[in-house]
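Per reviewer request, we include the raw input and output of the structure prediction for the construct analysed in the revised manuscript.
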Amino acid sequence: MEHKEISKAVIARLPRYYRYLGELKDEKVERVSSMELSELMHVTASQIRQDLNHFGGFGQQGYGYNVAFLYDEIGKILGLDQKHHLVLIGAGHLGQALANYVNFERRGFLIKGIFDRDEKLHGMKIRGIEVRPMEELEQFIRKHDIDIGVLTIPKNGAIEVSETLVRGGIKAIWNFAHVDLNVPDNILVENVHLSESLMKLSYMIDRAKER
């Protein structure tokens, strides 16, 4: 497929397409029209066709989309046909919750190591993975070909840890720390600020009261 610049809005919708198609596949639905998918997802049929046309279209006039085929193709576009190795930094409540989330493995995201500064946690196992000291992080990344670092630690330590991840050769960081990271341009960063999501909900609740 020829690589071209795709907007972030289109990319952000792909996981939703993948999820809904997966549900249809589980229900043994063989084909779906853009209109039917539109009703499920509350996205216009025109928007769906435009989004998918960025990657080749996949539909047939009068037939719609083959659910299993489109599901697999979107999975490939998202890179889910490959395995991604993760390290998780922070073995607190959030870190443990993420480590125990089995859907990561089903999508090809494999947690290979868990690290924490707290010596009391060292040696503890979460889903069979031993919590290691931070001093081992950089070498572990190099040895185990780690793609993604997941930060679930307070912001005052996140910047230093991100520098360690970069030195180790990490390709991307999934950042739950409440701080913006200053990393080289070739390192991908996805920020997940939970409190900001709640603030957005608060805003929408207040706006709804005014209607």
